[in-house]
């Protein structure tokens, strides 16, 4: 008598399909979920350059506090010899933004980091539509100015 191993084959197919589904889904903000747009900050500086003094001072004093306050962001410090200091931010949508901080003082660096942290990662552009939606309405946005007939209160009063 022959035995078939169909359940194991089916389990492998289901597991492969589930893994493929998990890889395809992207985390989205919604009810009970908040995905922080900035996922990684990379500090690049030169150890010998004078333009990197303020960055090295910030890294020694305040970088650890920033990393503890923002555990959702990976903080990486890399030396970059003979170059100006930069901060590179990587976002969940795949974009990255780079800021040169060679003329920034120690007090200005947290502002630059905060702007990179709070940025959505999308390119800045002018929005022509007032409502941004994944599923746009078929009828559009209601406005009383789209009505052809104009009604007034005198039209509603009964005539004697």
Please provide a written account of the structure.
The protein is an alpha+beta fold. Helix content is 31%, strand content 16%. It has a four-stranded mixed β-sheet, covered by helices on one side. Strand 3 (86-91) and strand 4 form a beta hairpin. The model is unreliable at 1-11 (pLDDT under 50).
* Bulk shape: elongated
What are the segments in which pLDDT stays under 50 over at least 5 consecutive residues? 1-11
Give the biggest beta sheet: 4 strands, mixed
Rounded mean pLDDT score: 78
DSSP, total strands: 4
Oligomer: single chain
Derived structural class: alpha+beta
Provide a count of the helices: 5
From the N-terminal CA to the C-terminal CA, the straight-line distance is 97 Å
Strand order of the largest sheet: 2-1-3-4
Series of secondary-structure elements, N-terminal to C-terminal = HEHHEEEHH
Helix content, binned percent? 25-40%
Beta-strand content estimate: 15-25%
Q: What gyration radius follows from the Cα positions, in whole Å?
A: 28 Å
Protein topology:
Elements: H1 6-24, E1 38-45, H2 53-61, H3 63-69, E2 74-79, E3 86-91, E4 96-100, H4 109-118, H5 153-156
Parallel strand pairs: 1-2
Antiparallel strand pairs: 1-3, 3-4
Short overview:
The chain is α+β, with helices and mostly antiparallel strands and 160 residues long. Helices cover 31% and strands 16% of the residues.
